[in-house]
Amino acid sequence: MFSKTGLAKLIDVAMLRGDATADDIKKMCAQARSYHFAAVTVFPYWVHRTVQELRGSDVKVCTAIGLPFGAYAISHKIAGVKQAVHDGAHTIEVVINLGELLSGNIEYIRREVNEVISAAKMRSLTEDGSDVTVMITAETAWTNREQQRLICKIVNEAGGDFITTNTGFASRGVSIEDVLALREMADYDLGIKAAGGIRSLEQARNLLNAGANRLGTSAGVLLVENFEE
């Protein structure tokens, strides 16, 4: 049984709307402080402002690189990762190149994952020496189980920290079956972040019970408030 704060500490609350303004970011950060969420996830542009808003709190700053489909050159992703760490991000969430994965270009995916993880870890050492958590998004809405198994293996070998299930931009969000499958595929030390379409407390509980270590959702406040009820 989770406490309200215990549940909140398993949630990365997301502000990934295209029309989000500085006021929206400020409001989300104030809520995150109040509820003690694990992190606030924003687009790279908003990292610096989010760091300022959350300074002195126990809430981390997460940013997404490569949304929505990962269709950026590796060099662009590396530049984005380095800038995000420089701006103060504690967690980097990178969407793999889905087109290359679906084409069967596994060596490209292996190189991409290795290079972005290495860039994040090395950049953190040159900034303030603090650890940076790296999450790699598998997008289970468009990948099959064998492709997901390969991603888990590659991320684990590269020293990544989490597999994220979904971007929230695909045809569907996360399912219980996705989390169960990834938990079976992934090494024990590799976290599973369930994300995409999480809107109810029951859904959140089921995903955590299936093996998710973290939840990514824009409905974090709703989940915690429903828990109080």
Keywords:
alpha/beta, 16% strand, TIM Barrel, 229 residues, 10 helices, single chain
Q: SSE order, as H and E?
A: HEHEHEHEHHEHEHEHEH
Shape: globular
- The CATH superfamily bears the name Aldolase class I
CATH class bucket: Alpha Beta
Do you know the CATH topology? TIM Barrel
Structure description:
Helix content is 48%, strand content 16%. The protein has a single domain (4-228), classed as Alpha-Beta Barrel (TIM Barrel), CATH 3.20.20.70. The chain is globular. An eight-stranded parallel β-barrel has the order 1-2-3-4-5-6-7-8, surrounded by seven helices. By secondary structure, it is α/β, with parallel strands linked by helices.
